[in-house]
Automatic annotation (TrEMBL):
Presence of the UniProt keyword Oxidoreductase in the record: yes
Protein name: SDR family NAD(P)-dependent oxidoreductase
Keyword Oxidoreductase: yes
Alphabetized GO MF terms: oxidoreductase activity
Chain segments annotated as transmembrane: none
Any Pfam family: adh_short
Domain of life per record: Bacteria
């Protein structure tokens, strides 16, 4: 996508973090905005901020882990602006814990937020984009955790690898039918977002805290580790420009942390040579 002015961007998880930064950059490029978020206060603040900057913006309070809520979001975007040219699937959560301890409701939540929300939105929006026959773009926010793996976060890695694979495979399918829709997958490392405060975004249906895991040392240490790596991550202020510049340059994989290139290359080499994960190498 080369032209942005007056095109319509639909962005999930837009109340803070990556979604808000991308929304600000879209506003700078004079796009019309539909911002979706599960947190009403964050959403209202984001919409107010952008309106004060002169942007044309509409907010939608919704839970994108539910297909019906995604349908509502898409309907509002079409009713308000008549088209969707740029879909940003950004909403997501990061939950730690080994597979034998992490409660199943957290698996349901993270799969819904990090993967199925993207599936729901793409199923709804791609047919609209195909009918428009205009130049369109879809950005799925994954993570460098979708390109490499580490210990302690199997659910997060699972969903982020799935997001990367979803984006790659859908790109093949759209190429096969000659669609004028391009895709990108954003795979950043640690950035100073609000991702570690995921509990404040937990939907009501996943609120059962009777499982002993929620009072265990593993749960609290995972939260502390998440807070540390997020707070010491890359400043967020350049993210919006990096992402939009990548889309303008038709980059499929949009990366922000060259430090992980060695680990990505090592993982591919290990695959080709039949080696499994080695924790000592990871920590080294």
């Amino acid at each position: 996508m080369k032209e942005f002015k007056n095109k319509v961007a639909l962005i999930t998880g837009a109340g803070n973090g990556f979604g808000f930064e991308i929304a600000k950059e879209c506003a700078e490029r004079q796009m019309k905005l539909v911002l979706a978020d599960i947190d009403e206060n964050d959403l209202e603040a984001a919409v107010s901020f952008l309106k004060e900057k002169g942007a044309e913006v509409t907010g939608v309070h919704c839970d994108v882990t539910l297909d019906a809520e995604v349908q509502k979001m898409v309907d509002i975007a079409l009713d308000t602006y008549g088209s969707i040219d740029f879909l940003v699937n950004n909403a997501g959560v990061a939950i730690s814990g080994p597979v034998w301890k992490l409660p199943l409701q957290d698996w349901d939540w993270i799969i819904g937020a990090n993967l199925m929300s993207q599936v729901y939105a793409m199923r709804r929006v791609i047919p609209i984009m195909l009918k428009q026959k205009t130049e369109c773009h879809i950005l799925n926010v994954a993570s460098v955790a979708g390109l490499i793996t580490s210990n302690g976060m199997p659910a997060y890695h699972t969903t982020k690898h799935a997001s990367v694979a979803l984006t790659e495979s859908t790109s093949y399918d759209l190429q096969a039918i000659g669609a004028n829709i391009r895709l990108s997958v954003f795979c950043p490392g640690f950035v100073q977002t609000d991702l570690h405060n995921y509990e404040r975004h937990r939907p009501e249906r996943f609120m059962d805290k009777s499982d002993p895991y929620y009072s265990s040392p593993d749960y609290y240490s995972g939260q502390k580790k998440a807070e540390f790596v997020i707070r010491t991550g890359m400043p967020i202020d350049s993210i919006g420009m990096s992402v939009l510049n990548g889309i303008e340059e038709d980059q499929f994989y949009i990366l922000t942390h060259p430090i992980y290139s060695t680990l990505i290359g090592r993982r591919v080499k290990d695959m080709l040579e039949g080696r499994g994960p080695d924790l000592s190498v990871l920590r080294g």
